[in-house]
Write a structure and sequence with these properties.
about 700 residues, mainly beta, four-stranded mixed sheet, globular
Length: about 700
């Protein structure tokens, strides 16, 4: 044996002694084998020396999946290496460890990942064949999973009021289609680290080696005894959040629970966002109140996070007869075969807004099953009919939409915008429109996208702008399944910003309310533009966020999906556009002093019967009307004179015995008059404006 080989064995022995591993060392045998290499300094005696450390109970492994990309850390919380484990990767974990106050899962070998990145697995069996859905509850293009199939799930999530199991890669299955989860499969023990060269044979250590050779083999091969995981702590369960709905005056409007689902501790949640609630959670006729709707010490909850302790929060509502509810669509074939269910969210719609459920554009990218399209009326037989005249109502509705097999039915294309350096700039959906499978589409043409699809301040890059292996997609055709493509963008030069001033209390354009803000020589598209105060209409200042939101909720203002707010969240933010044809940007302003009605105009109200939408007329068959004329000393722009209050029309004899029609009355009429729907006066129709208004009020016999 060479001198270096002897020293290698000594180092191995000393290393194991340092780490306190269970060893049985025949010092004399080693000494005899190694000669004068200095073993005496380690063993110190001819008799066998046993060095014992308390063996830690081996933690058992369980399967888990990464919810997001995760770096690896050591036992001191320091990052190990530069590469992260990819989102969706299945890993084995061996209990938990708290490092510097944060929970980690052990990967073995002294390595850890943050618990917030991990979803633990359970095994479940499908009670019925089920489709696969995305995080928004929309059906994906993945094949249906067969009844009886056993799959791994990684926690639950409530989507649109229904419980789903997470199966990884952003996909979910309805919990209703799953049998009660079975126990996690028998776990395997954690692997132990090995510091010995792989060529060295290992053996189970004996208490009394019979020879020098056997003693050496035992010493060189045994490196077990420590899990490398440190102390473990029990798994903690993140709790759901109980929400008490109340009105501003303290009236109780019920309680709901926001389940934790797959959330981890300290994950944030905005309880003022309607989308976090189920379709029937918020009481009919109510909406979440804006900050400007609250008085006294009432405040909406902010900075809410999921925790391991039970929480109860108060969320304030306000009466809102325009507050709509989602529409549930059951897809069926002409023979009655069920093809799944989707929910059409409310979005910015209000009660009375129309929706065409036979238009593919109202559905999500994966809602309509592959190989099918919406059937035309001529495709249906018997009493089957497509829904028509559908409007959003104050209650959740369920409608049946018929499909037909269609091998030419194309699916939309999901485009991920990126910069040349890989920076993500958002995702858009390129709809199918009238295209079919096999039709070509050029994703590098700006005309392919909607007006607001390409992020402000950017334009589609040319091939010459790209480096490395980056390339724009070419030869793209529509297919029967959803596709995902990357399109590269680049910063665009700044263009002048055109603005239009809108009064926030009346919804009207302010007289002389347009201007152009030129871009400077050093400005780039997307840079913040400052609108000169001198360009504001006389007597007006910029409205703040709460005033804009309140006016939007009351429908005085139309919902503006392009609006941006400054980082402090108080007022609007404006940026230079990248195109000379960019649409005029609306700037919402308010009067610096409350303007009296000298600046306002009258409201003329006409009346129609809700039963047949005909005018209420006088004895000469002339439609009756009423003028609300503002009082120049007490009324203001934005004041509501009571357009929907029948007592204001007591002087009109033809209206005797009539009441204002309800939304239910409006819905009844619309259900029998598709294409000729009517709408009750709402929003800006009810307040004094900067211009005259003519309003129709629908009435019914009391």
């Amino acid at each position: 044996m060479s001198y270096n080989q002897k020293r290698k064995i000594v180092k191995t022995v000393k290393k194991n002694h340092k780490f306190g591993r269970n060893l049985v060392v025949g010092a004399a045998a080693i000494g005899g084998l190694l000669g004068g290499v200095g073993v005496g300094n380690f063993a110190g005696a001819a008799a066998p020396t046993q060095v014992f450390a308390k063996a830690k109970k081996s933690t058992k492994a369980s399967s888990a999946k990464l919810k997001k990309s995760a770096y690896v850390y050591n036992s001191k919380g320091k990052r190990v290496g530069k590469k992260a484990l990819k989102k969706g990767k299945t890993i084995k974990v061996y209990g938990t460890k708290t490092i510097k106050g944060k929970k980690y899962y052990s990967l073995g070998h002294g390595k850890y990942v943050k618990a917030g990145n991990v979803a633990k697995a359970k095994s479940v069996k499908l009670a019925k064949t089920t489709y696969v859905y995305n995080s928004k509850g929309k059906k994906t293009s993945a094949k249906a999973l067969k009844k009886g199939k056993s799959i791994k799930v990684y926690g639950t999530k409530t989507i649109k009021g229904k419980k789903y199991y997470y199966i990884g890669n952003g996909k979910y299955i309805p919990a209703a289609n799953v049998k009660k989860p079975s126990k996690t499969p028998t776990p395997t023990p954690e692997p132990t680290p090995s510091s010995t060269p792989s060529s060295t044979p290992s053996s189970t250590p004996s208490s009394a080696p019979s020879s020098a050779a056997s003693s050496t083999g035992s010493t060189a091969g045994n490196t077990g005894g420590s899990t490398g995981g440190g102390s473990t702590t029990p798994d903690t369960t993140v709790k759901g959040i109980s929400v008490n709905f109340k009105l501003n005056d303290g009236t109780d409007k019920g309680t709901v629970t926001i389940p934790a689902g797959t959330h981890q501790e300290n994950d944030p949640i905005d309880l003022t966002d309607p989308s976090v609630y189920g379709p029937t959670d918020i009481p009919d006729g109510y909406a979440i109140a804006a900050s400007g709707d609250l008085t006294g010490n009432n405040q909406q909850p902010s900075n809410v996070k999921f925790t391991t302790s039970a929480q109860t929060k108060i969320v304030y509502l306000k009466a809102d007869p325009t507050s709509a509810r989602p529409i549930i669509v059951n897809f069926k074939l002409n023979d009655g075969t069920d093809k799944g269910t989707v929910t059409i969210p409310v979005g910015t719609h209000h009660v009375g807004d129309s929706i065409d459920l036979t238009s593919p554009s109202v559905y999500g990218i994966s809602d309509i099953p592959d190989g099918y399209s919406i059937a035309a009326s001529g495709d249906l037989t018997g009493s089957n009919q497509q829904p028509s005249g559908v409007t959003y109502g104050a209650h959740a509705q369920t409608k049946t939409v018929y499909l037909k097999a269609d091998p030419t039915a194309a699916r939309a294309i999901k485009v991920h915008f990126k910069l040349n350096d890989g920076t993500d700039k958002g995702t858009v959906i390129v709809p199918v429109g009238t295209h079919h499978v096999g039709d070509s589409i050029d994703l590098t043409l700006p005309a392919t996208y909607g007006a607001n699809d390409i992020p402000e301040g950017y334009m589609i890059a040319t091939s010459g702008d790209l480096t490395g292996s980056n390339q724009q997609p070419t030869g793209v055709v529509y297919t029967a399944s959803v596709q995902e493509k990357i399109v590269y963008l680049k910063a665009a030069p700044a263009q002048s910003l055109s603005v239009q001033y809108i009064d926030v209390v009346s919804g009207d354009e302010v007289t002389g309310g347009t201007t152009t803000v030129p871009a400077g020589g050093n400005d780039k598209a997307g840079d913040t533009a400052t609108i000169p105060t001198a360009s504001f209409p006389t007597g007006y200042v910029l409205a703040d966020k709460s005033e804009i939101e309140s006016a939007t909720t009351s429908k005085v203002l139309d919902a503006d999906t392009t609006i941006k707010y400054k980082e402090d969240g108080t007022t609007q933010k404006f940026v230079y556009p990248s195109s000379t044809t960019a649409p005029t940007k609306k700037v919402y302003v308010k009067a610096s002093t409350t303007p009296l009605a000298a600046a306002a105009n009258k409201i003329t109200v006409k009346f129609k019967k809700v039963t047949d939408a005909t005018d209420i007329v006088d004895g000469s068959s002339v439609p009756v009307f009423h003028d609300f004329v503002p009082n120049t000393t007490s009324d203001h722009v934005g004041d509501a004179p009571g357009v929907l209050t029948m007592s204001n029309y007591s002087s009109i004899t033809e209206l005797s015995g009539y009441d204002v029609a309800t939304q239910a009355d409006i819905d009844t009429y619309n259900s029998t008059h598709p294409g000729n729907e009517i709408h009750q006066a709402v929003g800006k129709d009810l307040v004094y404006g900067l211009t005259p208004r003519t309003v129709t009020v629908y009435v019914k016999h009391s």
